[in-house]
Input
Amino acid sequence: MCVTCGCGDSAGVRVRLPGVPGDGHQHSHEHPHDQLHDHSHEQDPSHGHDHPHTGEPRSQPIPAATRTIDIEQELLAKNDSLAEHNRGWLAEHGITAINLMSSPGSGKTSLLERTIREAGGKRTVCVIEGDQETLFDAERIRATGAAVIQVNTGAGCHLDADMLRRGIEALAPPDGSLLLVENVGNLVCPALFDLGESAKVVVISVTEGADKPLKYPHMFAAADLIVINKIDLLPYVDFDLDRCRRDARSLRPDVDIVSLSVKSGVGIDSWYEWIGLK
Amino acid sequence: MHELSITQSVIDVVTERTGGDRVAIVRLQIGKLSGIVPDSVRFCFELIAADTPLAGAVLEIDEPLGRAHCKGCGEDFELRDLILLCPCGSADVVVMAGTELAVKSVEVV
Output
């Protein structure tokens, strides 16, 4: 939902190329059903801002005679079917997509930068960056030389399958490449939305505290791999590595876990091995 | 606030079936382990159902409890959170219920 005018789902999502000038946000909206069609609602008086939002009871009396309609539909069905479509397309083109999720500041972008610079020669690496606003992360990735697209979700707190589809459409990753998708920094919402990725990776840094897996169980239960980052800071923080691993495995017994420091490089080979760049 | 997009799906799913008919009651199933907070859905619903045929509709939310089956001891047990542990000590368990997230039915006028 767009915070400016309140129009529907996915409105306000922008797919952007870093380094392209003149992308001022002029309150334009892209609607996925119309591909990349944009239109503007500037000062449109018919757009319904005059309804009351608060202060009066909303529920109306229920009439005596109503008709029951069975719906029986999963609420994530639409996203899941779009995700399956993405999965099929990626498989057809030999592209491995990895969905990286974490809280803000855990080091996802730094991990991607180092990965591309150090191991990007093994396989073409492309990146889709998700953030509510700014091109900051896409600019950092672009500086490594990798192809990158920024998806700005506006008010949205996660990427969904349709946003990934639009990102892929704009990025056009080559066949056989490794597509690294950096989700919006958030340990709650992205867990629920299948993008059609090959694997989900959750990054946690030791400065966040070892209690995060049990505090955010949906996220850690969804992870195929957990990357514990910033272990060079272990001497300075109270982070119980064993507890973190144990708690994560209580949510998903077969989860893979690697501990590393993007900054110092210690342990990073296990990450390269896991994503097939070694 | 992923409840916002989930609630938008409620409205999309319902209006796809009911068109412009006024909807008086929406029956949802939101399992205890689904990761969705029913109160947040109610809050979002009031905001985004305005100006739709669902405006003012009552939300009836069924919240199935989490249940799991233990492959170790063969028993079914209530799962209060996502920690996959049977009272017998085994972690070899399968979630059977509690992750539901669906529109079941509506009452139209």
Q: What stands out?
A: Residues 5 and 45 of chain A are 11 Å apart (CA to CA). The radius of gyration of chain A is 21 Å.
